[in-house]
Amino acid sequence: MMNIALSEMQETIRMVQMESLDIRTVTMGISLRDCADSDFEKMNKRVYEKITSYAKNLTSVAETAEKEFGIPIINKRISITPIAEILGDATKEQAIELAKTLDKAAKKLGVDFIGGYSALVHKGISKGEQTLLDALPEALSVTERVCSSISVATTRTGINMDAVQQMGLIIKEAAERTKDANGIACAKLVVFCNPVEDNPFMAGAFHGAGEGEVVLNVGVSGPGVVLNALRRYPDVDLGVVSEVIKKTAFKITRAGELIGRVVAERLNVPFGIMDLSLAPTNAVNDSVAEILEEIGLERVGTHGTIAALALMNDAVKKGGAMASSYVGGLSGAFIPVSEDNGMIRGIEEGALTLSKLEAMTCVCSVGLDMIAVTGDVSPASLSAMIADEAAIGMINKKTTAVRVIPVPGKKEGEMVEFGGLLGRAPVMGVNPFSSEKLIKRGGRIPAPLQALIN
Amino acid sequence: MEKKRAVVSVIGKDQVGIIAKVTNVLADNQVNVLDISQTILQDFFTMMMLVDVSEIESLEKLQEQFDPINEDMGLKINIQLEDLFKAMHRV
Asked: What ipTM, to 2 d.p.?
């Protein structure tokens, strides 16, 4: 007698072949702290050698596991120690050189992205961190696979508004430098409040200070699987909806955990965490927005969107938490606009607005993600947008982020293509009233009462 | 040696010779079949076989031998380690 019933096997095969169940990423975290050196050339060489030797077999081992288990692993990625921490007194030009080195290492290894061209400046900005910020627009425009994240706020420290101010300018400049490619550099840059140290997803992955020498983290995907599961229960009440999502999330996560552990073991690297996020793609039906619509909205963005999203996000966590022994990363639903056909349609039809997207970030895992805005937006408005998201994260003790692309020369309503997993997005307008004075004040927004928990 | 088992799944339009073709490949590779179950639903053939792959070094090579059958008969034959199914459906 078979241990697994025929119907169960069919379910797994259907999930993979017809409902886009996949492992979104296996991400190897590598500490680069021992690469620091006062001699830049030495450091540059060490960084390249360490990454290319530690992750030498990442792609091949992941591809073998993919074939043996019959589940696609879409991306192989690397996260590294926030680069600002090892820059020391390197110059801006050297920091850009280091970004190119990281890009070269990623290409040599055949990994899709390398994350960690990062700085944690949520309270203050050190010398190396300022160098990184100065280098950022150019570094992101001359590299392809390097991703950057900047932490500007945490619940424990408050919001560093000086850093927030700089980020508005940096995003504008990065967009301008890649104007021929619709400002694509900004798609590789995320501004965080309360970032996590073991996130396997890009652009926000970095290998945090509390991490070990090397680790393997896994991120699953699977909005399509959840959507199809819900379609089989069109008339049940919301308690049952939650239950269906929970059970589905459990199965998806178990698949991810298994593959993650196998890959980690074969690479002889400790398994870190499983990130339970539902990450959409532009594949048909692989959409978080469509799950919300299946729950009962005519279009995503209408009244009730937040309630449906809160239910879904919570159910995903509950199902996933039991399925994995170490849950980490961001673990919730992502709502990137350009990577989700349902979100795109919601905006095109006027149901979903920037304000509603902001509100949605209060109850799901991250924030304003992959949103294209008009090219003439002012740096201060971008900074203020970041400040708003940071405030939501700070007060609610959660991660929030902004990954926004001010597309040069584009106006509200136009469609821009970013290509690949990054998808396409309708350009959104921003509030025309100025936030200049708020941003110009600078300084820090003090840590909230929520921080005083000792 | 630890037993390694895999699931061979065959999905497609029902026709003469499916099981013969699939089991031929398995026999050629000295793969023992442990269990078979199949259903035909509206002309749609689904078969799952549990096989012993303890002696098989590369599932990929085995999969490659199924690929020509897939093309000839318009089927979808896949071989995957059983662990995946266990992980997803058993606590």
From this structure: 0.84
